[in-house]
Amino acid sequence: MLDRRDFFTKLGLGSLGIAAAGTIAFYYQYLSPNVLFEPSPIVNAGRAENYTVGSVTLDVNSAIYLVRIADGYFSLSAICTHLGCMTAWKPELNQIACPCHGSRFDREGKKIEGPAPKPLPWLKTWISDDGDLMVDRSAIIPPFQFLRV
Length: 149
Ligand code: FES
Prior knowledge:
Blueprint: H1 4-31, E1 42-47, E2 56-59, E3 64-69, E4 72-77, E5 88-90, E6 95-97, E7 104-105, E8 111-113, E9 122-127, E10 132-141, E11 147-148
Bound molecules: FE2/S2 (inorganic) cluster.
FE2/S2 (inorganic) cluster binds at residues 80, 82-83, 85, 98, 100-103, 114-116.
């Protein structure tokens, strides 16, 4: 049976233990680096020969368009330059359209209408040694620099 002195001793030790655990948790959180792990900007878009001439393919996961033309390939960012909405390819209009405020772009990313201040950026595109189409989302290139094949 606990007497009054033992009870308060154990209560005090328990309180100290809880305070110590809280302090350790706080310092662990404080000393852990706040690192944001972002996915690689390099996208492997699969076999280059899978894209038919004239196709505009939206890769929703990486927010890029892969465009196949007779002479080669190019890729565009699918993020609207107005406020950053994801655009969509409208084959019936032969345009890329933004659902948010109505900006429209042609298949080369040039703005046709709407509030977007700039065209859709062209992205560095190449074919890997294995024959896969690769895109670097972090590397904007001047327009009309096609990957010729
Ligand atoms: S975000 Fe595309 S038009 Fe506004």
